[in-house]
Amino acid sequence: MSFLIHLGSLVSFIVVLAFWTLVVYATVQRVVNLLIDRKRHADAVRDLWSERRSPVANTGDC
Protein backbone atom coordinates (compact mmCIF):
# COMPACT_ATOMS: atom_id res chain seq x y z
CA MET A 1 0.00 0.00 0.00
CA SER A 2 2.85 2.40 0.72
CA PHE A 3 4.07 1.76 -2.84
CA LEU A 4 0.85 3.30 -4.21
CA ILE A 5 1.27 6.33 -1.96
CA HIS A 6 4.82 6.85 -3.18
CA LEU A 7 3.73 6.33 -6.79
CA GLY A 8 0.92 8.85 -6.39
CA SER A 9 3.22 11.45 -4.86
CA LEU A 10 5.74 10.87 -7.64
CA VAL A 11 3.08 11.34 -10.32
CA SER A 12 1.78 14.53 -8.67
CA PHE A 13 5.35 15.84 -8.40
CA ILE A 14 5.92 15.19 -12.12
CA VAL A 15 2.65 16.92 -13.03
CA VAL A 16 3.48 19.98 -10.91
CA LEU A 17 7.02 20.09 -12.30
CA ALA A 18 5.72 19.89 -15.89
CA PHE A 19 3.21 22.68 -15.21
CA TRP A 20 5.83 25.06 -13.77
CA THR A 21 8.25 24.18 -16.55
CA LEU A 22 5.64 25.25 -19.10
CA VAL A 23 4.91 28.44 -17.15
CA VAL A 24 8.59 29.39 -17.04
CA TYR A 25 9.07 28.50 -20.72
CA ALA A 26 6.10 30.62 -21.78
CA THR A 27 7.29 33.55 -19.67
CA VAL A 28 10.81 33.42 -21.09
CA GLN A 29 9.44 33.15 -24.62
CA ARG A 30 7.21 36.20 -24.06
CA VAL A 31 10.09 38.26 -22.66
CA VAL A 32 12.33 37.33 -25.58
CA ASN A 33 9.60 38.23 -28.09
CA LEU A 34 9.05 41.59 -26.37
CA LEU A 35 12.78 42.34 -26.51
CA ILE A 36 12.92 41.41 -30.21
CA ASP A 37 9.88 43.59 -30.97
CA ARG A 38 11.43 46.45 -28.99
CA LYS A 39 14.63 46.20 -31.03
CA ARG A 40 12.66 46.11 -34.31
CA HIS A 41 10.71 49.18 -33.21
CA ALA A 42 13.93 51.01 -32.31
CA ASP A 43 15.46 50.09 -35.68
CA ALA A 44 12.34 51.28 -37.51
CA VAL A 45 12.33 54.61 -35.65
CA ARG A 46 16.05 55.08 -36.36
CA ASP A 47 15.50 54.32 -40.05
CA LEU A 48 12.59 56.75 -40.19
CA TRP A 49 14.66 59.53 -38.65
CA SER A 50 17.59 58.83 -40.96
CA GLU A 51 15.25 59.07 -43.99
CA ARG A 52 13.86 62.38 -42.79
CA ARG A 53 17.33 63.83 -42.30
CA SER A 54 18.62 62.60 -45.65
CA PRO A 55 18.17 65.19 -48.43
CA VAL A 56 18.02 62.44 -51.09
CA ALA A 57 15.05 60.74 -49.47
CA ASN A 58 13.02 63.96 -49.43
CA THR A 59 13.38 64.73 -53.14
CA GLY A 60 11.52 61.69 -54.40
CA ASP A 61 13.95 61.30 -57.33
CA CYS A 62 15.21 57.88 -56.28
List the helices and strands and how they pair.
Layout: H1 2-53, H2 55-59
What does this structure look like?
With 62 residues, the protein is an all-alpha fold. The protein has a domain at 22-52. Helix content is 92%, strand content 0%. It contains two helices and no strands. The chain has helices at 2-53, 55-59. The longest helix has 52 residues, at 2-53. The protein is rod-shaped and about 80 Å long. The model has no long low-confidence stretch (mean pLDDT 86). Keywords: Membrane, Transmembrane, Transmembrane helix. The chain crosses the membrane at residues 6-28.
Strand residue percentage: under 5%
The coarse silhouette is rod-shaped
Average the pLDDT over all residues and give the rounded result: 86
* Low-pLDDT residue intervals, each spanning 5 or more residues: none
Q: What class, by secondary structure content?
A: mainly alpha
Q: What is the gyration radius calculated from CA atoms?
A: 26 Å
Major sheet, described briefly?
Answer: none
Count of strand segments? 0
The secondary-structure element order is HH
- How far apart the termini lie comes to 82 Å
Number of helices, counting only DSSP H or I runs of 4 residues or more = 2
Q: Give the fraction of residues assigned to helices.
A: over 70%
Keywords: Membrane, Transmembrane, Transmembrane helix
Transmembrane segments: 6-28
